[in-house]
Each structure stands twice: as C-alpha cells, then as structure tokens.
Specification:
heterotrimer; A alpha/beta; B mainly alpha; C mainly alpha; A: alpha/beta; Rossmann fold; 6-stranded mixed β-sheet; 19 helices; 24 strands; C: two-stranded antiparallel ribbon; 14 helices; about 5% strand
C-alpha cells in the first residue's frame, strides 16, 4: 500500500507544557485510520498541526516533519493544507451560520466570472456564478445521499445536517486525498452515524485516506483499518484494527504502570455506616461532560476515585457539587440536605473543589502566590483580616505568615510569596492550588485531574500531599482523574462513570480488563463494593 | 545598574517617553526663564483638581469592564448635588459637604441604573458607556433649561428661566478646599485642603480594595471563574464597582468645580472623560489593571505636562498648541492601550 | 400575529422615528413645500456619506467611527484646491482624487490599527478619529502658512499661520455639482448630479456584494475564525473594507461640502461622523447588519427631524434651544440604543 502521509517525530508545547512528544503517524492510500486517546492526549493538537491551524502557529509552531507522498512539506496555514489535498471536518462546526448551504460548501472556492471591473481591478472583483455553485453543491449533497435544500440558510438546520454539510464541503474539493474527521458522530443519532460510516467507506473506495477520531470506541473498531492510540501526547500503540479489542483500547488509553505508593495506615477504619455525603440522582449540565444520573455514598475519611473516559461526565460530578455548573438532584452532607448551585454555600460547609482547569479556573495567574493561597479564605471566612477604623481589611502580614508556612510545607518553588503564579511551573502551580484548598479547612475535598500537565517528580509530591491530607488531617477526598494508574495507587475504591451514569464501583485491585469493560459501560454484574 | 534596568523594564514605555518629554520641558522652561514657582503652584493645583476624577477609573478597570467612559453619568449626579446645594444658598464648607453628600446619594441611584445597563451589554461597556455619557449630557442640557431652579445667581438674567452655562461659585463653595490651610513656600502656593482631600480619597479607595467587597471586585476582574469558585457573585461585584466609580466621579466634579471656581453645565461634562482615562493610562495602567499608584503618577505627569507646556511652547508658537497637544497625547495614549496585545491567554 | 410582532420588533427604530417625525412635523407647522425641498436637498447631500458606513458593518467591524478620517482628508484636499484656485467641476474632481489618495493611506493605517484591536473595533475607531483630529489640528492650525505654503491670506489667521474657523468655497467649488443639472419641480430644486452619484454608489455596493471580494467580506463579517480556516486572508479583507469606507467617506464629504459652501475647518468632520452614524441607525441598521435602504430611509427620517426639531421645540417649550438639544440627544441616544442592543445580542450569542 502506498503511503500518502507521514508525520515524523512531531512535538508541540503550549506555554511550556508539552502536549505532543515524538509522535509518528503514517497513513496509507484509501485506508481508514482510527485515532483514539483521552481528552488532552493530543489528538486534536496533532490534527491542528496537520491542518496548519492558526492556533499552532500563533503559539510558536511545532517540531518534527510532515511528508506527503514522501516529500517534506511546510503547512503553515489552512490554505496550504487545502492545496495539498487535506480536508478537515472540525469538532466544532466550521460553517458560517448566516450563509446558505451552497455558500458554505463553496466557501472561498467560489466559481467566478469575468466582468468589466474585474478586468481592470483584478480577480477579486469577479462576479460569483451562483447557478454553477448551486450545481456543485447539489452534486456534493447528492453524493452523500442526503436531501438538503442547497439554498437553505445553515443557521436553522438541525445539527446532523450541519455535520453532513461539512462533509459535503470536503467532498466537493476535487483534490481531496486526506480527510480528517474529528468526532464526526458526536452529534448524530445511531442511524445517522451508520450513514456517516457508509460515506466513509464510499470515500475510501475512491482512494481518499481518512483519519477518524472518535470517543465511540466501538465505532472506531468497526470502521478502521488501522488504529493508533495516544496517551499523554505519545503513541502507546499502533496496528491493524483486528489486533485490538474494545477493552484493550480503553485500557491502553488510560492505563499506566505507576510504582506502588506506600499507603500509611488509618487511625480509624472506614465504615459503610459513617457517610459524609450521599449523592442521589445527580444531574449536571456541564457542556461536554454532562452527568445524567449519578448516585453514590461517600464514606467519611476515604479517598474515592472517579474515573471514566473523556466526555462521559466524570468531570461533571465535582463541578456540579461545587456549584460551578447548574446541577439538580438530592445531596446530603452529614445527613443534612445540601444546597446545590451555590459555590459560597459549598465553601462555608467545608466542601472544597480544585478544578481540572488549573489555569482557567483554579488560579489568578497574574496575582502573587500568597494571594492565590489566601484570597478564597478571606472571602469565604473573613480569615486573615483585621479591623481598621470602620473597615475590615485583609492583613498582609498574616497572609504572608500563612503563605510562608504553606510554601515550606508543600515545598513550593518560588522566588518569594509575592512572585506571580504565571511564572511557576505546572507542578508548583498545582501545589499553590493545594495550599489554597488546605487553607479552606475542607471536610471533603473534590480534586480533579490533580496531576495533569505536571512532570513525574511533581506528580508524586502532589499525590503524597493528598495522602497526608487524608491520613493526618482526616479530609475526605474525591479525586477525579483520567489516569487509572493514579487512581489505583491511592484510592480506596474507584467509581467509573460511563454515558453520564455510574457504571461500576471497583476496588483498586480489580483487573485491567474489568476497568476497561466498566469504562465502556459493558461490565456485567452491577457494582462491586470496595 | 541591574536594578535600574529592571526598574526600567517594569515602567510602561509611554509613561517613560512622556516623563522624559516632561523633564526636557522643565529644562527648556528654566532656559527660557519662565517663573518656575508659579508653574509648580499651578500644576499642584491642577493635580488636586483632576485627581479625584481619575480615581473614578480604578473600580471599573479592576472589575474588568475597562475604563469608565461613562464618566459624565457620574458627573451629572455631582452637578445636581452642587446645584441643589447652591439653590439652598449654602456657602463655605457647609455648602461643599452638602453638595458632596447629596451628589453621592444621587450617584448611587444613577450608578445602579447605569451598572444594570452595563451588565446587559457585557463586552461592549466602553462603547455603550461613551454614548450613555453623550446621551445623558444632551438630555440634561434640556433639563438644565427646564428644571425649577430659581436662585438668581444660577438662572439667566433675562427671562429668569433656565440655568446659565457657567455658574460662579464665589458666594458658595468656591475654593473652600484650596484655601483651607493654604501656605506658600518659596513662591510655591500649596492648596493644602485640596491635596488632603485627594490624598484622603485615594486612601479610602485603597482601603476599600483591601476589604472583602474590594477583593471580590479584584477577583472578578482577574478571573471570573476563580471568583465564582470562591463564592463571589460577579454580577453584584460589577454593579458595586460601577456605582462606586459613579459616586467618585460625582464627588470628583465638585472638587474640580470648587477649585476652578465655576460650575460648568451643558456640554462641559463631556470634556472630562478622555483626559481622565488618558491620565490613568499614562500612569501605567492598562484597560485591565490599575491601582492607586497609576492614578497618582498619571495625574501628576499629565497635569504637569499640560501646565508646563503652555508657557514653554508659547515661546515657539501660539499658546493654543497645548490644547492640540492634549488631544494628541490623551487620545494617543488611549489608542495605545486599546491596541496593546492582551496578556498571554490564560 | 407572531409574524406581525416580529416585524414590529425588527423595525422598531424606524417605526418609532417615523411617528416622532410625523408628530414633530405636525407640531412645528412647517410649510410642507419648504420641508420637501429641504429633505430633497439633504438626501443629495448626505446619503453618500451614510452609505460609506455599510461595508465595514458587513465586514464585522461595526460602526466605522473612522469615517472622520476620510472627512478630514476631503477637507484637506479642498483647502488646497481652493488655494490653487481650481474652480467648478474640475476643482471637485481634483479634490476627490487628492482626498481619495490620502484616504487610501489613512484607511490602510486605520485598518492595521483595528486589526490589533479585534473585538474593540468601534471604540478604537472612535478614539482613532479623535487622535487624527489632533494631528489634523496640528497641521492646519500650526503648520499651514509656516511649514506648508498657503497663498490665500484671507483664509489664514491674522498672524499668517493656521487656517481660520471658516474656509469659504464660494466662487470656487461651492455648488459645482449641484448646479451642473438642476430640475425644478414647482418651487423645489432637485440637484440631479449628486443624486446620480449616490445612485451609482448604490449600484456599486450592490455589485460588490456579488463579487468574490464581497463574499469574502461577508464571510469575515460573520465569523473571522471560520473564514480564516477556509483560507481567507482575514486581516487583508478587513483592511480593504476600511480603506473602501474611508475613500467613500472622503468623496462623500466633498459632495457634502460643495453643497454647504463653507468648510467649518475644525468642526465639519466631527459632526459628520456622528450624524451619519445616527442616520444609518435610525434607518433600521444595526452594528452587524446594514443595507442601502437603511441608509436612504435613515437620511430621510433623521433629517426630517433635524429640520423640524428646533421649531417644534419652540412651539412646545417656548425655547428653540430645547429643540436643538433634543435633536442632539436623539442622535446620541439612538447610537447608545443601537450599541446597547448590539452588546445585549453578542452576550446572548456567547451564552
């Protein structure tokens, strides 16, 4: 088989954070190549590099090389990519809402005619040839077997139609050779997804090579000839689709061997009777991580893990409890009803949350280390304050003292407590977040993706500190993570979320296969108790 | 040496250029034998006179809605307060304080409405603010003609209806702050009361930003999501900031008027906004971050520049060149701030 | 019923202003013939300027407060045409050519600046206008007559440096276009040539949006990111839109000033920005959508109000000043309202 595309040793960093490490990928003529991996594994970044997206080049470009038909090419803009016959159906729709279907399909590839003015002032004043454009659009839509009015305005169409229009646009590109489909079935119903897979096969028969990205692993298995699995920005496995089973893929996406941590013993054993928080039928409306129905009892003093594949809602649970996204359901804290959708209530009742989005939610990037640690405590509890005349002011001296203590305790590497947080490394930023959480004296701490984007040494320190919080200070911890190994190393039990629902509660000692099945939502036999 | 370089790096480029220009002007001023003491007295007076208005920019910038281009909204409130105090025939400090408290009360009301509107147009606050300012000034121009003020010092001599363009404050609270504990050192006149008032206002705002409410405003401006996760209601924080800015603007115009000696109505409030915005930017603020230091440095540099450039430049050409220079410097400064690349995305 | 409601809401501004106009006309008791002749004249005088705003709106840059740059270029050109004593239509042509040349440069610079302030284009273009006004004053108050030679003493300030507040166009280009072809309908004089030029511009704008460039402008205006991903050079398209708008504004200002007959050296351009934008918005345009018809209807409504407001104010309140302040208030308020609507909508889209 002829190799159409080769990506060699691709590496890319955003703000000093490496998201791709020496990734290699080859694409044969007329094949469907499945690309799978967790959120943040680097799939979308890899495809953005291939398509020359502005976001890559405005953040310093990438390392490595791209070869098309064995020749090195330099793709620095989407226009270049198109010239090489690369098409892309983006995860978010790239359709102009106010334009008609025809205008969108022919966007920037309009058919034009000469007129007097264009002869004088150049090509950009040529008139659009609408009838011809309409013909083309009609043909492209016909090819994918849809009946969509080519003169309808896109804004009012159903999402599935928009998805197919995107594909029609790519098909209309006569030089199309490589087509990237990024989560093409996410918005489709089952029968629509079937049709999409038919179109994929039709295209490969015509010799187009397809890179297929999807969270629906069963779909990837069904349609792909070969599969590449990414984890943490590196390729962990690649080979013919027949080589893999569904749970193997799931396991490889999330699995990692981690040396065993020595867990210190507890002074008081956990008990099923002593519940600190019980969650009943929780629904959380968090875009991309919707929780549909989640119930669990959290035991006082335990470390509960929440795992699952990206997009299935594992991140939504903590966000919902903490009041960051609209939530409904019944929640009891120490037996008393707990008010949802109120971040301030959560804090005052000892429910503290550390966001998975450290830079976006968890930190004030341009503020000092000490203010990052203290600000929430000042607001929620009026800590570190003193009276002055008729004002209650925050007290820099008290803040400084506390910050120094936290810096010492957590070994935060900074020049001084007044250094701004943006300049710190990912690991040290996370330590600042932990210091902030500790300052809030949590009864129960929800921490999401605590080790994402930080180096191995720092990961260890972060996990150690979580254990210390739990064992020494008696804080109940609910840790959400994409890294199964990490969950298994410190959690007492692990709840797996699939399709927005609790799929299973497994002990950390359960087998990889069991975790794989649970994540796919296919583990029979209900929930285990750890 | 390293420390100097480090310090230079931190100083904003335009602040540096304008300061250097200012120093050059001073040297020229000495050279052309312009009386330096009277220049200094003048600029000190103007700093105190304009400073409070510049201070009004701090809350809105810090909460993340940008400089308060709707400054006239607050100024109108201040003018109303001052007019009522005049109508009541109050003079001296009594008149001044009554004007201040009345306008603060009026501005709280107007500020609530203005803040509500700005919340509705999140992301377009600067533009909407500017035109709200223009609209309210035009609307109040009608009102100045219609409102039932009767004090003969205030209304047109002929017809007895409608307020005059400029009202003399001599008999009321003109110069009360300027004259309070005024003293002279080596020919330089220091309006102690005025400076004290400006310093006091700065201190109050500084203290406010160290309270819980002030901190909440700061957090919303820096990272709204962080603020929410700290239990802050961002809408309320923005409203408080806008009201505060409006109140400071109201008080600011009274301070300005007492120092100037006249109350200016009709179009006059419009000409206050851009110099105030420019001042804080010259002091090193950006449209997202500002502190009291920026206010003080900016006001000092900008007002001194305007005072000194007049006699110096008029040696070369006509005096009204300073007016043009003010236009170019202040708008150039705002333009620079608007086109500056936002900090690295978070 | 639903449909009627929708129509009423989307045309709320023009409907409101129509009512306002009719009542003001009734109150003011202005002779209808006088009103008609005023309106026809203002239509030929102001429409071109208002039309110059359309392209940046379609390109997603919002209201281009930077048209004052074009207006300044036009005035600068006229000052020299007058000084060189080029009269009649040739004078107008030379002025248009010079003004266009200056505007291309200014528009290009403005475009670059606005590309650095994406998402804040309107406030930036407004401040840019103020800034340019400072430079303009520097040039015409202090450089003309000193650095820049200027012969016509009568337009200079007494010291021989700087232009006076008023520069007279009578005897040179005043009414050059108007008088080329006048048709009388009763007592109403209709100036055909300026109206024809407006007609040509309307055709040009319609044509432009049927070309590749027009399509690119529309695409960029709807969504910059998608346009860029589709391979359109977004920054270039935006600069082109601003350049076209500035050049049109310059030509529009020449047409406007030849009708007025005198240049208010330091004021004409400022006012023209405000009144053109207000007129377009009164015609039902928004900061994201504008058509030729919005411009024409807007000029009709806004200028009717302009003509009748002082006498209406006088009749109602016994003070003509009230009417004058009122029309100023309307101009600002309609812009504030349109901007508020714009902000409110953008926010809803983001939610």
């Amino acid at each position: 088989m002829r190799v159409v595309l080769e990506m060699r040793n691709i590496s890319k960093s955003f703000y000093g954070n490496q998201v791709l490490k020496n990734v290699n990928l080859t694409l044969h003529e007329g094949e469907v190549h499945g690309l799978v991996g967790e959120n943040g594994a680097g799939k979308t970044t890899l495809m953005n590099i291939l398509f020359g997206m502005p976001v890559i080049h405005s953040t310093g470009g990438f390392e490595g090389e791209i070869l098309i038909d064995g020749e090195r090419v330099n793709i620095d803009s989407p226009r270049k990519a198109m010239e090489y016959g690369i098409g892309m159906v983006h995860q978010e729709f790239m359709l102009i809402p106010g334009f008609t279907v025809t205008e969108n399909i022919k966007l920037n590839r309009e058919i034009t005619r000469e007129n007097i003015l264009s002869k004088v002032f150049g090509k950009s004043l040529r008139t659009l040839d609408f009838p011809a454009m309409r013909e083309d659009a009609k043909e492209a839509i016909g090819t994918i077997g849809m009946s969509i009015d080519e003169l309808a305005v896109v804004a009012g169409l159903p999402v599935a139609h928009k998805q197919f229009i995107e594909i029609a646009r790519e098909i209309d590109k006569k030089n199309l050779r490589i087509l990237v489909l990024d989560e093409p079935t996410a918005v489709l119903s089952e029968s629509e997804a079937e049709r999409l897979l038919d179109i994929v096969r039709y295209l490969t028969n015509k010799g187009v090579s397809i890179l297929f990205i999807s969270h629906r692993l069963s779909e990837v298995l069904k349609v792909s000839d070969r599969i590449t699995i990414l984890r943490d920005g590196a390729v962990v496995d690649s080979g013919p689709a027949s080589k893999f089973t569904l749970s193997e893929i799931a396991e490889k996406m999330v699995g990692r061997k981690l040396e065993n941590l020595d867990l210190p013993p507890r002074t008081k054993e956990l008990s099923d009777e002593d519940t600190i928080m019980s969650i009943r039928n929780l629904r959380v409306y968090m875009p991309g991580e919707t929780v549909k129905d989640f119930s669990i009892d959290i035991r006082r003093g335990e470390i509960l893990g929440i795992g699952g594949l990206a997009g299935h809602g594992k991140l939504g649970v903590a966000n919902g409890i903490a009041g960051m996204y609209p939530a409904e359901g019944e929640v009891y804290l120490e037996g008393k009803p707990y008010k949802l959708n109120d971040a301030s209530y959560a804090l005052r009742n000892g429910v503290v949350y550390l966001s998975e989005d450290r830079r976006g939610v968890g930190l004030l990037l341009d503020e000092s280390v000490e203010m990052n640690i203290a600000a929430t405590a000042i607001l929620a509890f009026g800590e570190f304050t003193r009276r002055f005349l008729f004002f209650t002011l925050y007290d820099r001296k008290k803040i400084r003292e506390h910050a120094m203590e936290m810096i010492r305790k957590l070994d935060i590497r900074c020049k001084s407590p007044s250094q701004i947080v943006r300049r710190l490394s990912g690991g040290n930023q996370q330590k600042v977040c932990l210091a902030r959480a500790f300052t809030l004296k949590p009864k129960i701490l929800f921490v999401s993706e605590p080790t994402r984007g930080i180096d191995v040494g720092a990961k260890r320190l972060v996990l150690d500190y979580l254990i210390e919080l739990n064992r020494k200070h008696g804080v109940t911890i609910v840790m959400t993570s994409s890294e199964l190994a990490e969950l298994r190393s410190i959690c007492d039990r692990i709840a797996i979320v699939a399709e927005g629902r609790l799929s299973a509660v497994l002990p950390p000692t359960a087998s990889d296969a069991e975790f794989g099945l649970a994540m796919a939502g296919e583990l029979q036999g209900g929930t285990h108790r750890g | 040496m390293d420390k100097l370089l480090e310090w230079l790096k931190r100083v904003d480029f335009p602040t540096l250029v304008i300061s250097l220009f200012l120093v050059a002007l001073f040297f020229v001023a000495i050279f052309v034998e312009v009386p330096i003491p009277s220049l200094l007295s003048d600029s000190i007076r103007r700093i105190g006179m304009n400073g409070v208005l510049v201070l009004a920019m701090v809350p809105t910038i810090r909460v993340g809605v940008g400089p308060n281009f709707g400054l006239p909204v607050g100024i109108i409130g201040g003018l109303l307060g001052a007019l009522i105090s005049m109508q009541l025939g109050l003079s001296g400090f009594l008149g001044f304080w009554v004007a201040v408290f009345l306008s603060a009360a009026i501005c709280v009301g107007i500020g609530l409405g203005y803040g509500w509107l700005l919340e509705k147009v999140r992301g377009q606050e600067m533009m909407v603010g500017t035109y709200m300012g223009y609209s309210i000034v035009a609307f109040m121009s009608i009102m100045w003609l219609m409102l039932p003020f009767t004090n003969p010092d205030m209304v047109w001599a002929i017809g007895g209806k409608g307020l005059r363009y400029t009202l003399t404050l001599d008999k009321y609270f003109g110069h009360v702050l300027n004259n309070f504990l005024k003293f002279k050192v080596g020919g330089v006149e220091v309006p102690t009361g005025l400076i004290l008032f400006f310093a006091g206002a700065c201190l109050l705002v500084y203290l406010f930003f160290r309270t819980k409410v002030g901190l909440a405003i700061d957090l919303v401006g820096q990272n709204e999501k962080y603020a929410i996760s700290s239990g802050v209601n961002p809408k309320r924080a923005r409203l408080v900031a806008v009201v505060l800015s409006t109140v400071i603007a109201g008080v600011g115009i009274i301070v300005y008027a007492q120092s100037y000696g006249f109350l200016q109505l009709y179009q006059a409030p419009l000409f206050m906004t851009f110099p105030a915005v420019a001042s804080i930017l010259i002091g090193g603020a950006s449209i997202r971050r500002a502190n009291i230091r920026n206010v003080v440095i900016g006001t000092v540099i900008f007002q001194t520049l305007l005072t000194i450039s007049l006699p110096v430049l008029s040696q070369v050409t006509r005096g009204d060149v300073t007016e043009v220079m003010r236009l170019i410097v202040s708008n150039g400064m705002i333009l620079y701030a608007l086109t500056r690349a936002p900090r690295e995305a978070g | 019923m639903e449909k009627l409601k929708k129509v009423l809401i989307s045309y709320a501004v023009p409907i409101f202003f129509s009512i306002l106009c009719v009542s003001a006309v009734l109150v003011a008791k202005i002779p209808p013939l006088f009103l008609a002749s005023e309106i026809v004249r203002r239509l030929s005088r102001n429409t071109f300027l208002v039309l110059s705003l359309i392209i940046p709106i379609v390109a997603g840059l919002g209201l281009n407060f930077g048209i004052v740059l074009g207006a300044m270029a036009a005035q600068a050109a006229l000052f020299f045409v007058v000084d060189w004593k080029i009269k009649g239509i040739p004078g107008v042509l030379v002025a248009c050519l010079m003004a266009s040349a200056i505007s291309v440069v200014l528009g290009w610079l403005a475009g670059l600046v606005l590309n650095k302030a994406k998402g804040r284009e309107m406030i930036t273009s407004m401040i840019l206008g103020f800034f340019a006004n400072g430079i303009y004053q520097l040039i015409f108050l202090f450089f003309v007559g000193s650095i820049i030679p200027y012969r016509t003493r009568q337009f200079l300030l007494p010291e021989g440096v700087g232009l006076r507040n008023m520069v007279d166009l009578y005897g040179t280009v005043a009414s050059a276009l108007n008088n080329a072809w006048v048709v009388r309908i009763g007592t109403i004089r209709v100036f055909i040539l300026p109206l024809l030029i407006v007609g040509v511009l309307c055709l040009f704008i319609t044509f432009l949006f049927k070309t590749k460039l027009g399509q690119d402008i529309r695409a960029v205006g709807q969504d910059m990111h998608i346009a860029e991903v589709a391979g359109i050079d977004v920054n270039k398209v935006r600069v082109i839109a601003i350049v076209i708008s500035t050049v049109l504004a310059a030509i529009g200002q020449v047409i406007y000033l030849q009708d007025i007959g005198t240049v208010n050296t330091y004021n004409s351009h400022e006012q023209i920005g405000l009144f053109s934008i207000a007129a377009l918005l009164v015609g039902g345009a928004t900061t994201r959508k504008a058509t030729i018809w919005n411009a024409i209807i807007g000029v009709l409504l806004f200028h009717t109000l302009f003509v009748v407001a002082p006498s209406a104010g006088n009749r109602l309140f016994g003070q003509p000043q009230v009417g004058e302040f009122f029309r100023e208030f309307l101009a600002y308020a309609v812009i504030a309202f349109a901007l508020a609507m714009h902000g409110w909508r953008t926010k809803r889209i983001l939610m």
